[in-house]
Amino acid sequence: MDKVLIDTDVILDFFFDRQPFSDHAAIVLSYCEMNKIEGYITPVILSNVYYLLRKTAKHELVIDKLRQLLTILDILIIDKKSIMQAMNSGFKDFEDALQNFAAESADNISVILTRNTKDFKNSKLGVMTPESYVKL
What we know:
The structure is a single chain. The chain is of the alpha/beta class and about 140 residues long. The protein has one domain (about 1-125): 5'-nuclease (Rossmann fold, 3-Layer(aba) Sandwich). It contains seven helices and five strands; from the N terminus they run βααβααβααββα. It has helices at about 10-15, 20-35, 45-55, 60-70, 80-85, 95-105, 130-135, and strands at about 1-5, 35-40, 75, 110-115, 125-130. It has a five-stranded parallel β-sheet with strand order 3-2-1-4-5, sandwiched between helices. Helix 3 packs antiparallel against helix 4 (about 60-70) and helix 5 (about 80-85) crosses helix 6 (about 95-105). The longest helix has 12 residues, at about 20-35.
């Protein structure tokens, strides 16, 4: 079973129904719900999603949506080692570097699912869009 890191943009595509991307995001999340894949996010992703959803809905509703999300996704640890690797990496986006090194430090994460594949060009992991992943 694949273990995948699901980037912020994919989660937001789903929640905000951003067409045409939301359909593939929904399929990826349904794979997680059906235990076809193991999906992961980081605390940074969760915080970013909360922040952006909170602009459109009350705290209680956003927390409820995040609770539902966490019934099908697990959270990776971002420790000091991952942070230092991110700081010393060739990544131009520090947030993406944090996601990447948390995933690299985890057991058996094989793919990062993101629409911003170019931001992860320095990753040692596979990087795919949800659309490409679903087509596999």
